[in-house]
Amino acid sequence: MPSRIVVLISGSGTNLQAIIDACKSADFPGEVVGVISNKVDAYGLTRAQNDNIPAIALSHKEYDSREAYDIALMDQISILKPDLIVLAGFMRILTPAFVQSFSGKLLNIHPSLLPKYQGLNTHQRAIDAGDSEHGVSVHFVTEELDGGPVILQAKVPVFDEDDADDLAQRVHEQEHRIYPLVVKWFCEQRLTMQQDNAVLDKQVLPTSGYASE
Description:
single chain, alpha/beta, Rossmann fold, three-stranded antiparallel β-sheet, 6 helices, 10 strands, about 35% helix
């Protein structure tokens, strides 16, 4: 049985699409069984519908607190019985209760070489700092914002003439490569989180995640 994947989004869903496309490969041991967005007009919901995947709009504006929204979100997710929950541009800070409920089954992608530039505006911050390289990290989600153990990173160069959009485009290309790969590792039961460490093939990964060098 393929692993059941639920993807949470807030926007256009390009990483969602990369994962949907990867799941179509004969050797991919997972399938997206539901997509949930906190924004009712997110294009990622259309992407899900185009592939006959249940698409659920759960607007945070209809709830009076973060806690109330996350309870409703947990209920929706639980109906889908996921083995893995993938945050793909889900622009919400999750409550501790949510994170604890799905601990070890939550992945996120963040557009920086964590632990650098947690939070927002990462591309501009890298440019402003004069960095020569920037990148993206896939990590397990813990209660610390963008602070869970890193699984895999991809680096891109920063050129003198870059603006934030140039850098974002370069990073997006790497996102669409590494996120489906990490999801595949998890679905193959090669990847777990143990004692706040990412563990791949029974080896604890370093703080910067897996490195093929």
